[in-house]
Structures are given as C-alpha cells and as structure tokens.
Amino acid sequence: MAAGTAAACLSRLPAQAQTGDSYPTKPIRLVVPYPAGGTTDQLARAIAQPMREILGQPIIIDNRAGAGGAIGTDHVAKQAGDGYTLLFGNSGPVPPRL
C-alpha cells in the first residue's frame, strides 16, 4: 500500500522547464518531525524505498522530534523551496464542525 501511495504521489509531480538538469540531481531529505521508530517514521521509511527507485536518488530520513512536530516543521519551512527538503508529517483528528 505504501509503495502504491508513493507512486501515485510522485506521478503527480508538476512538469518543470528543461534547464539541462532534471529533478532530482542530488539526495532528497525527508524530514519526519517525530521520533525514530514511531508510526510516522515507519511510514516514511516504507515510502522512501519506492521513492529511491522512482527518482533515482537517495532519500535521507531526518528525524527532528520535539514540540509536537513544530521543530521539524519549522526546519523544513526555513529551507530553500527547491524540492530537496520535504516534510513527512501527519494530521491529527479534526473536530467536527458545529
């Protein structure tokens, strides 16, 4: 299931202008804002392998736990918007609308 999810997500990557280099040309960092070994980390690692095969680049899992995910999320927000640092988070329960 994880491989199918990764393939579906990656098949929807936007087309990019040809500049001589095609994305990706270097390793991709997948930041998990939770501790290693947890459910989110395990899912990220399961998806990283198909991503490696599809993109042809290493996928580096970078666990940055703390503050309920805020530390890892803040780290990703401060990176260049070049697609080489991605956030692998989750969404919590959403309360019903009243």
Structure description:
The chain is of the alpha/beta class. It has helices spanning 2-10, 39-55, 70-77, and strands at 28-32, 59-63, 85-87. A three-stranded parallel sheet has the order 2-1-3, with helices on both faces. The longest helix is centred in the middle third of the chain and has 17 residues, at 39-55.
Structural descriptors:
single chain, 98 residues, alpha/beta, 3-stranded parallel beta sheet, 3 strands, 35% helix, globular
Structural class: alpha/beta
Order of helices and strands: HEHEHE
Q: What does the average pLDDT come to?
A: 84
* Share in helix: 25-40%
Number of helices: 3
Shape: globular
The first-to-last residue Cα distance is 34 Å
